[in-house]
Fold:
Amino acid sequence: MESIEHNIPNAQNKSKVHISVTLAVAISLVLIMAGIWNAYKTGLIAEENIKASLQLQRLSDSIRFHQESMSGAIEFALTTGESHWHTSYETNLLNLQDVMHATDMTLSNSIVNKIQLEQGKVIELEREIFSLVTEKKQDEAFSLFASDAYQEIKIEQEQNALTLRATLDREAKDIIGTLKSRLDRTTIALAIQIVFIIAIWLYIINIVRRWQAHQSKHSNELTRLAHYDALTGIGNRTLFHLRLETAFRQSRRDGKAVALVLMDIDHFKDINDSLGHDTGDKLLIKVAEELQKTCRETDTVVRLGGDEFAIIATNIDKKRDSVILGNKILSIFEHPLSIQSNEIKTGTSIGLAFYPDDGDSAEELLRKADMALYEAKRHGRANFKFFDTAIEVAARNKVKMQADLQIALETGQFKLHYQPIIDLGGNLVIGVESLIRWEHPEKGSIPPIEFIPIAEESRFIVQIGEWVLRTACQQQVDWERKGLASINMAVNLSAVQFNERNILAQVEGIMQETGIREDQLTVEITESTLMETEGDVIAKLHALKSLGLKLAIDDFGTGYSSLAYLKRFPIHHLKIDREFVKDLPENTQDIAIARSIITMAHELKIDVVAEGIEDQSQLRFLKEASCNYGQGFHLGKPMPAAQFEEWLLHYNEQNHSNVRSVG
Ligand code: C2E
Ligand code: MG
Ligand code: MG
Structure:
């Protein structure tokens, strides 16, 4: 559980991811903005620099052009003797001065000043040459032109102009160089920014991926929790419904049946109670493991709750495959299962239903498999039953009967019959056992074996039992009043009644209400009830006994009680089950069992009643074996109160005896 919680992304994780993404977006935006700004600035600078560089080059070109033009004009004037070249000279001079002025502003260079200074001298001489040409003094003009003073100053001026142009060219190159390095820097900065942005986004993608993986793990975990049983790790009821629907769809496609196998662990509650919940849990885990090993991979094994498991087996050839599967599951429980240090011997009951034959919805199939399971239990557990219509009819009848039982109690359809219990020593009637009869208006007489288990299932037996106890006690008191010698009244108490919390108060209340003498009432509790009752059975028996009534263990020999228990039960009678009487005196095993029960009971100072005596030979054997009391058709059948009174009269006359109490 701890690891699950650890894996669940919490709000803190979520906000961390949120902050990281926001930060990354912000940094990326800043970097992008910086990149754009840098590129923009570089663009501006580039534009400026290129302009400046072009201007410088233009200046350099203009200087050269105008100087050459001026020199050309002089040379043309000298060679042609035409004075109009002077105009061209002056125009170029003006242009050159403008350019020099512009250059001066751009460079504030000393060379410009120097050129301008020297230019004054050159211009003076050149203007003089032009005026000589104009005056047609060609020779003078030429000798001035060829004079050293002019040529020197001219050379110097040209050199200065060359230096200036070289400077301008260099400046222009420098500007382009600066621009280039600026562009390089910008490119590097942009590249770094791009790398940064990519790194940040890779980091973010990584975070988001991890978050997504985290979330999908979390949602897988939730799905697992929703679909799988926390204890055993196999599927739960939700998965069961999902898989069942899938199996139905598959069956509709391939036409093969789907088997729904429902099973539970016999007496799981007892194991849980006696060995502890920890062992109970381990047993469930073990069974889940074994079931998974037993089933095919395509089958779905789930725990529906408690000790109830279900298997969805697809692709089933109904009869053959499911018999194999049923037997395989039973074989898991063939040998004791070792859980912790315990070897637990338990069993299972299995119910099977098929899609589409038995039902076409999960609910219906589950209901039918459940009916089959119930049927398997009724047939003595450790077996499997297929659903069939007879089971459904029985189940419907059961539901109907539960409703009818209510009506029966309200409309007085229940009657009590009384079967004599005879003291075998003196042939005296010492008491009767009250046995319920259901006189159904349509179905006639329904034996208790048919309706008591159903009444127990719905717990309606509590109300029926109360009526039985009251009616029987009342009858006993009536007989007493009528002057019949004391007839002890034995009343059967169902396991459900015995487990009722207020059973003591109920019995005591009825005893007081009817006024029955305590020692005239015997409560019969079956051996299996005592074995299956939760809590302190012995204390409960003592409490009942403290009311003054007698206690009898009914159907003794069928409930696997240990002798140690018998010693501690505060009981007066033990009734040997009919099962051990019916084959007497022929069956040697039954002889041994009957004799040992009687001997053992006597050792423990407990009287023995033999049930189901049907003939003289059984009676004789039991008398010889010193059995205290007998009950059976041979001695007296269960009969209504009035009939019993007549029977008793007749019996007493025949036996010339008096009736006395069991006492
Ligand atoms: P039980 O308490 O062991 O009652 C004895 C059963 O054996 C009675 O069956 C009785 O009719 C039958 N019996 C008596 N002598 C013979 C015989 O010689 N041969 C044969 N074959 N059967 C004999 P019944 O009345 O059908 O009752 C069956 C069971 O139903 C009773 O077994 C008892 O466990 C239960 N039961 C009957 N009445 C009540 C009742 O009022 N409350 C409760 N909780 N259970 C009752
Ligand atoms: Mg009985
Ligand atoms: Mg019995």
About this structure: DSSP finds 22 helices and 16 strands in the chain. The chain has three domains: 2-207, 237-387, 400-655.
